[in-house]
Design goal:
This protein is mainly α and 270 residues long. The protein contains 9 helices and 6 strands. The strands form 3 sheets. A two-stranded antiparallel sheet has the order 1-2. One of its GO terms (molecular function) is protein-cysteine S-palmitoyltransferase activity.
Length: 270
């Protein structure tokens, strides 16, 4: 389990959990219990908000505290000076496949599309970006959970706004505390919801184009606009979410390991 001491990341995580718990408190104890008086409709809405918040927290935890795809460090220091200087006469170290490179910062032999994160100080497989909201990198092993976190936060935000507006219409007489809490939740849900939905769409676009944010930044303008030959979209999504029916893609648990970690001994040919 990972826990970085990045101040910005710690603040963002605390803010995320605070807003989720505040939303849960307002919907359950400020609106549903006083207004619906334990009716079946109130129970149904309580179950919906609890499920959304639960899946949001689980998805966030998987994205924040688990390995995003760190490239294993060598057990012994390896001299990469010849490789860095472009000397091809030294055949001591050879990549096992095309596209492997040497990181100039952590001296790690890394596979294609792996990039170095300056905050984590490690190379990450298929690194997309370092997200302060999960205080972790978004890479090959946790992109699914990051996308699910965005999806469930967006769903929670949309549900909260619709439910609160509906209660304002159906129950016009409310206490001052209920009105204040309802306004605060609506503002939080709109701001946070718009942000996560935008990032969610961007993540889906990166899957469809098979290019992460870092990949796009490192490509030249001509390479970025060049025509790509890509596999079917369903294959690209399966690479991130794993095999199985669509309903399993929405589950923030490891039903099957689609991306097993690579043994560090297989990453160096000495």
């Amino acid at each position: 389990m990972l826990c970085r001491k990045d101040p910005c990341g710690i603040v963002c995580i605390a803010l995320t959990y605070a807003m989720l718990l505040h939303c849960l408190y307002v919907i359950l104890f400020v609106l549903i219990l006083p207004l619906f008086n334990e009716s079946l409709y109130g129970t149904l809405n309580a179950l919906i908000i609890c499920t959304l918040v639960f899946f949001s927290i689980i998805s966030h935890g998987r994205a924040a505290y688990f390995d995003p795809g760190f490239v294993p460090l060598p057990k012994k220091a390896i001299d990469f000076s010849d490789v860095k200087n472009g000397d091809s006469s030294n055949n001591l170290i050879k990549p096992t496949e095309e596209g492997w490179t040497v990181c100039n910062r952590c001296d790690t032999y890394r596979p294609p599309r792996a990039h170095h994160c300056r905050i984590c100080k490690r190379c990450v497989r298929k690194l997309d970006h370092h997200c302060p909201w999960v205080n972790n990198c978004v890479g090959e092993f946790n992109q699914k959970y990051f996308i699910l976190f965005l999806f469930y936060i967006g769903a929670t935000s949309v549900y909260s706004v619709i439910f609160i507006i509906w209660t304002l219409i159906v129950f016009p007489e409310k206490t001052e505390a209920q009105i204040v809490h309802a306004v605060v939740i609506c503002v939080e849900s709109c701001l946070f919801g718009i942000f996560v939905i935008t990032v969610f769409v961007d993540q889906l676009q990166s899957i469809v184009t098979d290019r992460s944010l870092i990949d796009n930044l490192k490509l030249s303008e001509s390479s970025r606009m060049a025509q790509q030959i890509l596999p079917p979209k369903r294959v690209l999504f399966r690479k991130v979410f794993g095999s199985g029916p669509l309903i399993c893609w929405l589950c923030p648990f490891d039903l099957n390991k689609s991306n097993p970690p690579i043994n560090s001994s297989e990453m160096y040919h000495v």
